[in-house]
Amino acid sequence: MPLIPHLPNSAGVGYKPQHLDDILADAGHVKWLEIHAENYMSAGGPMLAQLKRLAEQFPISCHGVGLSIGGERPLDKDHLKRLKHLISWLKPASFSEHLAWSTHEGGFLNDLLPVPYNMDTVKRVADHVNEVQDTLGVQMLLENPSVYVAFAASTMDEITFINEVVSRTGCGLLLDVNNVFISGTNQDYSPEDYIANFPVEHIGELHLGGHIKDQDEHGAPLLIDSHNDKVVDPVWTLLDTLLQRTGPKPILVEWDNDIPDWPILESEAARATAALEALK
Amino acid sequence: MSQIDFSKALLDNEQPTPEGLVDPKGRPAGKRFDVYRNNVILSLSDALSDAYPVVQKLVGEKFFQAMAGVFVRMYPPKTPILSDFAPEFPDFLASFPPVAKLTYLPDVARVERARTQAYHAADAAPIDGAALAALTPEQMAEAKLRLHPSLHIISSPFPVFAIWQKNSDAPETAIPKHGQDVLIARPHDMVEMRTLPPGAADFLRALASGRTLGQTIEFCEKIPLFDLTENIGGLFESNLLIKIES
To answer: Which domains does chain B have, with CATH numbers?
Structure first.
C-alpha cells in the first residue's frame, strides 16, 4: 500500500471559511490545514473552489467525521466512493477518521458515539479500517475518542484495543491529547499513564482542542469535548510530555464551535509551535 | 445492547439509559448518556437552523429549536453530508399543526432549500448572447438551450421572495399581496435571486425539460402577458445559459 506524503511536523488548524482572507493574507504559525471531508462532497460551488485554492498553498489533512468505522452495520459504499473521489483530486497529505460510530438504520446521528472494547469490536473495526484503506488506496490514521460512558461489555482497555486494530490493519494513529484528558478524567484513569503507554511509533498526527467542564449526577467530573474554546493548560502539559516520547509531530488545533477571530486561533497554533521548538 | 437500541434511546428521551452503559464505578450512566442525547439533537438542530435561517426568524429562535427537536427525531440525516440535510423540512412545515396558520412558511422553506442546493450545485460557465444571435431562424427554432445546473424556480401563491428579503438582507421590503415566481441560481460565486415576469417560470421549465426553443415559444405564446424578448434577454442577464445544442 502506498504511503501518502506526511504532514509537516508543525502546527495546523481546522479550516473555517470565515478565516479564508486572514489565512491568505498571513497564516502566521499555521503551516497546514485540516478539513472535514463531508463538507467538500458537493458537485461544485465556492467551498470547493476555496479548498482547491488553499490546497495549492498548504498541505491539507482530510479528516472524516461520517464513515462510522465503529458501526455494527456495513460501511456505506456510496460514502466511501465520495471519499475516494475527494481524495483522488485533493491528494491530501493525510486521511484520518474516528474510532466511533455515527450511523444507524434510521440515518446519520452527527455525533461520535462510543464502542465497547472487546474482541468482537476489534474484529469489526479492523475489517472496516482494512476496507477503507483498500478502497482509498492510502493508509489511514485512526483517532482515539473522547468518551463519556463505559461499557459493561468491555474486556480490555483502550490502548490494548488500539494496538489490536493496528496489528490487524497497519493503520496509523491520530492521538487527540484533549480526548486523552477528557476520557481519562471521565473514566477515572490517568492521562499521563495513557500517554506513557500509547504506541507512539504509529502516530501520524496530534490533535488539541477545547472542552467544557461539567459534573455527573454523583458529583464526579464530566468533561465534554466541545471544541469551542482554548486548549487548557493541563492538555498543553500533556502535550509536552507526549512530545518527549514522540519527537516532533504535526499538531492540529481544532476549534469548531463559537469560532474565534483568526488571531486567537493563530495564537493557539503559535503555542503549539513553541512546544515543538522547545524540543530542539 | 446493540447500536440500534443505543440510537433509539438517543432519539427518545422517554426511554431509559440503555443497560450496560456505566460510569467508572460501574453505576448506570444516566447524565453521561444524556451528553450524547444533547449532542445529537443540538448539533442537528443547529444544522437545521443554518439551512433555514429565515424560517427561524419568522417563527422565533425558541420555537424553532423546539420544532427542530421534533423534526430531527423524525428525519435524521440520510447521509453525513449536512449541506444536503433536511430536504423534508418544507413538507414537514406544511403538515406540522403548530405552524398551520403560517400558510406561506413551507414555500419560504422551499426558497431556502433551493438556495442551499444552488450554492452547492455543479459549476458551469454562462455564455453570452452572440452564440444565439449567430443562428439562422430555422436553427434557432430547433436549438435546445441548456440552462445552468444551479437553476431553481419556486412558484408560490404567496409573495415568498419579498418575505425572504424582508427577513434576511432587506428589512424595508414591502410585501405585495400577490404570489411570486422566484428564480434562484448561482451562475458564479454568489447565489442570485429575482422574481420572474408572467410566463417566465413556464418558459424556463419548458427549456429545462429539453424542449426546443421553437416548441417552448409555441407553448409560452399562449400565456397572457408573456413577453418573448424580455424572457430571452432575461436568460442572458441572469447568466443562465451555458450551452446551445443545435
So the answer is: 1-102 (no CATH), 106-246 (3.90.930)
